Backbone:
């Protein structure tokens, strides 16, 4: 099946720094990828839809200047958390769309902001 | 919020028993999917049921879909300790093509 990777798998950073998370589709091309955030013991919340070659579409309440998304190629989307604060600590999961009905999820990145 | 609802939020049963989880969603969908997530890990896709299907089986899993009630259920038969995890339904919203997740059910199988 299709494989999606994320890097890093976990990251700890100081408050005020920026962190970049990569999402790659390893054996297929994905024009559309999605970024989700999951707080402890909660469900996944869609943050944004990442479209190759165009601007990301953000969900209501998600600050696009804080969560920068770049989908520069058909196999890579990046999420940069700018000026991270402790409340940004979360589990970030990406997915890549294979076709209109199917997405494959990455293993997630745990971000801890001190 | 578009997020769907699941019940129960937590379920604890004995090994060998059946576990049933329910999910409701709010808008028209193309399909509904169920995922498993072990603590602190990524999602594992379990099963997908299309909007024109009413029931689907995969091994010990049985999924039903009632589009008139906007609800789905996941039945795990003959549960095992390894089934202990959180289970999420996710509805693929028609038109928007976005997956909206339910709140999840934390399932604990006691040996």
Residues:
């Amino acid at each position: 099946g299709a494989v999606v990777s994320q890097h890093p798998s976990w990251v700890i950073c100081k408050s005020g720094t920026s962190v970049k998370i990569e999402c790659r589709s390893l054996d297929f091309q994905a024009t559309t990828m999605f970024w989700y955030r999951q707080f402890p013991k909660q469900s996944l919340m869609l943050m944004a839809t990442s479209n190759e070659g165009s601007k990301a579409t953000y969900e209501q309440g998600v600050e696009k200047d804080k969560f920068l998304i770049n989908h520069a190629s058909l196999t890579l989307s990046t999420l940069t958390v700018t000026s991270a604060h402790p409340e940004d600590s979360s589990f970030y999961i990406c997915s890549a769309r294979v076709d209109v009905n199917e997405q494959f999820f990455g293993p997630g990145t745990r971000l801890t902001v001190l | 919020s578009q997020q769907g609802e699941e019940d129960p939020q937590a379920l604890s049963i004995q090994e060998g028993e059946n576990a049933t989880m329910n999910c409701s969603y709010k808008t028209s969908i193309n399909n509904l999917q169920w995922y498993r997530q072990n603590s602190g890990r990524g999602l594992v896709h379990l099963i997908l049921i299309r909007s024109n299907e009413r029931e689907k089986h995969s091994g010990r899993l049985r999924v039903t879909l009632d589009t008139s009630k906007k609800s789905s259920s996941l039945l795990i038969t003959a549960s095992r300790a390894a089934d202990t995890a959180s289970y999420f339904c996710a509805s693929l919203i028609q038109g928007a093509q976005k997956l909206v997740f339910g709140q999840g059910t934390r399932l604990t199988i006691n040996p």
Remarks:
- The longest strand of chain B covers residues 29-37.
- The radius of gyration of chain B is 13 Å.
- The interface with chain A takes residues 3, 30-31, 35, 40-43, 45, 48, 50, 88, 90, 92, 97-104, 106 of chain B (CB under 8 Å).
